[in-house]
Amino acid sequence: MIYKSLSLSFMFFLLAACSTAKPKINLNLIASTPMLDVAGITDSSDFSGSSLNILTVAPVNTNTIIKQLKLDKDMPGKIERIISEAGADPVDRNLAFTLMDEIDLAEESGDYGNYEGPAISDLVLVTKLTDANLSYSFEIESTYKTTNHGVEISEANCNFKASVSGYIKVLSMPHMKLIETIPFEGSQSQDIDTLDSECPITDTQKANMFSSAITDALSSNSTNFKLHSAVAARAFIVDKKVDEKRTYFKTTLKRSLGAKEGEGVRLYMEDEDSNELLFVADGVITANEYITDKFSYIYLLDRKQIPLIRKGMIVKLHKKCGILCKASNASSSFNKFISN
Predict the structure, then answer these.
(1) What is the mean pLDDT of residues 136-161?
(2) What is this structure's pTM?
(3) HSE toward the beta carbon, residue 182, CA cutoff 13 A
(4) What is the pLDDT of residue 337?
């Protein structure tokens, strides 16, 4: 999702995996603490958590290599494997035909949000390869001495490198509103022994190299992190309990949605006008005995953010990005929400 604020709590988040805070008193025996509601919700609001239905499509591509080797045909399947791991539900791609004309027009004009057809999924992932290149270099046979004073021969070979780049556009339904664009790039190298300095290579070898390059691109830490975060199931804050000095929030992020002890979560407000998710705080799912088929409990990494939390706020699993991966820039004030 597009994030508008990122507090210092993210720094604490990187250390969260070291230990998980557990209640000293059974949370089921602690009375609930009153909490404010998200503005506009009613007592009848449905706060049951659920996984998202995701449709993945790949628009027509005119790049010569991509078109010749049909590289774009593999893209939806590779994306679907990743989102399935994230707990989302892929939608039958045959339904994409009802959207393709609108998506092609949107890709050409850059104007999304005009689709008025059926809401066949919660999100649409438009994945497109924008570039694919194959380079090579020829190395002649050579000999060299080993540390044991022996002689080794390096066969003449061609070094091939396939590189790809592209993006995944995350669109919300039913109006195909552009939520986020996730760029990706990757490469794959291969040495092939040959005496032919022209470096011949078959289409099958090319296709295999590009397929590996695409897999490398999608599994890169930053891309994988952003994709997991975009498609993670939505759950909600429904209750608050205080155990001595620590505050725990009950959520509808249940076991079937991927809730596990020690997993990181991120809390959001949803903008009423744009449906954009506005970052509020980072947290951690507490002890396994409080994870059931209906709910789980979390605590915040930064206790100063506890007063910001409201019943009805959105909770999503938050995949750790890693030391070398920069999280989405998230910066926005929540004064207008906490003043309600």
Answers:
(1) 76
(2) 0.72
(3) 30
(4) 41
